[in-house]
Amino acid sequence: MMTNLFSVFDPSSGVGMSFNWVSFGVGFFMFPMNKWGLTSRSGSWLTFILGKLYSEVKPIFSIKGSVTSLMFMAMFLFIIMNNMMGLIPYIFTATSHLAVTLSLALPMWLGYFSYGWVSNMKWMLAHLMPQGTPIVLMPFMVIIESVSSLIRPATLAVRLMANMIAGHLLLTLVSNAVYIFNFNSVLSVVTLQILLVVLEVAVAAIQAYVFVVLSVLYSSEI
Questions:
Q1: What's the per-residue H, E or C state across the chain?
Q2: Could you give the number of structural domains in the chain?
């Protein structure tokens, strides 16, 4: 039972040859090439979403970090595309693996963290000591703030991975209930599945938004 339940997260599963990781970027090929260069409804819709996201995170950007806004917009598009692709039946969810989510969070954090300590060490040291901290608590606050800074990429990666795994496991468990209940309960199970899919669509969009906003927030401290 547990093997079948978690087999949807197994990247080596497949018939003959594994095509699971194709979903990692196949979503971008769903748009015709002319959609990226010409004005269209899908392009306008995508521009509208990215514009709204930029207006949300623009106040958080630092003066130096605002030039990297395109990188964060691309990250949002990549994450939400992979999250949505994972909701299609028989499509592998790449963002449900820690290797993928950590690969997104760790290089971003490491780049900003290293740049901050090299270019402005005094500012980074000031972040370890919140203003107004009592003298007795200063050593503990330095340790707490240091640990908090070091675990940031792990929290970003685990949050995204855990939400993707939890939603898919819930859908799998509810779908298995069809074999347990009688025919009269099938309608209730199907209705619950539809509601869960709608919830998963919302979670996929929200998690992409949270990932990008927190990344921008961390980078603004440099």
A1: CHHHHHHHHCCCCCCCCCCHHHHHCHHHHHCCCHHHHCCCHHHHHHHHHHHHHHHHHCCCCCCCHHHHHHHHHHHHHHHHHHHHHCCCCCCCCHHHCHHHHHHHHHHHHHHHHHHHHHHCHHHHHHHCCCCCCCHHHHHHHHHHHHHHHHCHHHHHHHHHHHHHHHHHHHHHHHHHHHHCCCHHHHHHHHHHHHHHHHHHHHHHHHHHHHHHHHHHHHHCCC
A2: 1
Q: Which amino acid is at 27?
A: G
Task: Write down the pTM of the prediction.
Answer: 0.79
Q: Name the DSSP letter for residue 39.
A: -
pLDDT along the chain (222 residues), means of 10: 54 55 67 59 75 81 67 87 83 83 89 82 75 77 84 90 86 73 71 86 91 86 74
User: Which structural domain, as residue segments, surrounds residue 46?
Assistant: 2-219
Alpha-carbon distance 100 to 109, whole Å? 15
